[in-house]
Structures are given as C-alpha cells and as structure tokens.
Specification:
This protein has helices at about 1-20, 25-50, 55-70, 75-90, 95-110, 110-125, 125-145, 155-170, 180-200, 225-235. It is mostly helical and about 240 residues long. It starts with a helix and ends with a helix.
Length: about 240
C-alpha cells in the first residue's frame, strides 16, 4: 500500500500548494512541467520493459492485447464512465465539484494507475506509482490553482481505487510464478512508456499524430499470464 498512500499524500500536499501559493500560474510553466514529466515517464517505462527475458512474448502480448482492447474499446468505455461520473457528481456545476470530478477522473482512469498498483501488489515495486505521484502532483498544482480545494479531495478515490487493485494483486500473487510476474511487469512498463510519449507528442491533426490509446492496450498485461500458465501446465 506504500505506492497508493504516497500518491494520495502528494495530491493533497500539491493541491494545498496550488490553492494557497501558486494561483495564477502562467501556462508556459504547465507546458514545460508536462514535457519534463513525460520524459521521466518514458525512461521509467522503458527501463522496466527491458527486464523482459521473452521479447517475442512481449511483442505477441502487445499485438494480441491491442486487438482485444480495440474490440472491446476500453478507451471509449473509460471515457463514457468519466462523462457519467462528471454528470452525476457535478452538483450544480460549482468549482469544488468541477475540481474534484476532473482530477478524480484523470488520476484514476489512466492505465498508469492500474499498472502501477499491480506492480505494487505483485512485486512490492512502487516505482511506477512514485512516477505517477510526481505527475499527479504537478497536475494538482495547476488544477487547484484554477479550480480550488476540490482537487485535494480527489486523493480519496485515488487511494481507494489504487489500494484496491494493489490488495487484489497481492491476494493472487501466490498463484503467479516469478517468470509470469516479470513478463507481466515488462508489458505493463511498456504501456507506461506509451503514456510518456503521449505527454511529449500531443495529438495533432496538422502533424497527423494521434495519441496512443493506452487503455486499449491494457489486456496485453494479462497475455503473459495466460500463455505461461498454459506452457507450465503442458510441461
């Protein structure tokens, strides 16, 4: 639970700083902070993905996971969930509600939250959630400076959501071999790197670049589990 707890605390501290210290932050600071964090996320993701000892399995998992995720269209489902939550929780459209809903959706629905929480539970590796904490903290600074104290309370759903995933992963860890955990983590880290690339290269019609729908790649994390479980069973 260390990763989820640190993530929630960073959101609280940075939201307070944004509310009382950084009101009126110029947009250029937001942009350069975003690029710096994007580079850091790419590094963390690629570094973790290099731990894979089965490169062909990693590639196969990414392709199969992409097909499954695109068929289900997880990205679209997550966006619909976010839209639904925003409508239900807006409560008159005040800035408190707007800040709470906007931050909660952003911090909880990303694949980095899922991957990082799984790594915390399966491996006791909190590196991804620590990187996410820096990202969330920077966003909290900017959001709270413009939308107020509601952003701070997004720490509650973040803690409950990521903590729940970490505890669930911990509960099934005994059923996973070290080989499976390593390969699942490598695929997950590659998805983390994809998030970083999205921060560095924004979607643009002018350049023809479309953002990577990382949510649609989430099924790839579980392909090594299925493949290696079958291989181990047959042997």
């Amino acid at each position: 639970m260390l990763g989820p707890i640190v993530n929630a605390l960073v959101i609280v501290v940075c939201s307070l700083a944004g509310c009382f210290v950084l009101r009126g932050l110029p947009p250029r600071f937001e942009e350069i902070i975003k690029k710096a964090i994007g580079l850091s996320i790419v590094y963390v993701g690629l570094k973790g993905s290099f731990e894979s000892e089965r490169v062909l399995l990693l590639i196969m998992s990414m392709v199969a996971g992409a097909v499954i995720g695109e068929l289900i269209n997880i990205d679209k489902l997550m966006n619909r969930l976010g839209d639904w939550a925003e409508k239900k929780l807006r409560m008159g459209g005040g800035t408190f509600s707007k800040g709470f809903v906007s931050a909660s959706i952003l911090f909880c629905t990303g694949s980095m939250a899922i991957v990082g929480s799984m790594q915390s539970g399966l491996q006791g590796n909190h590196e991804t959630l620590f990187a996410k904490s820096i990202l969330d903290g920077s966003i909290s600074l900017v959001f709270s400076a413009s939308m107020g104290i509601g952003v701070l309370f997004s720490a509650i759903p973040v803690l409950l959501y990521q903590g729940g995933i970490a505890l669930a992963s911990l509960a099934i860890r005994d059923y996973l071999t070290a080989d499976i955990i390593r390969e699942m983590s490598a695929v997950g880290n590659l998805l983390v790197a994809a998030i970083g690339f999205n921060f560095l290269i924004p979607e643009s019609r002018a350049t023809g670049f479309s953002a990577i729908k990382v949510a649609n790649l989430i099924p790839a994390i579980f392909i090594p589990w299925i493949y290696l479980a079958i291989v181990n069973f047959l042997h």
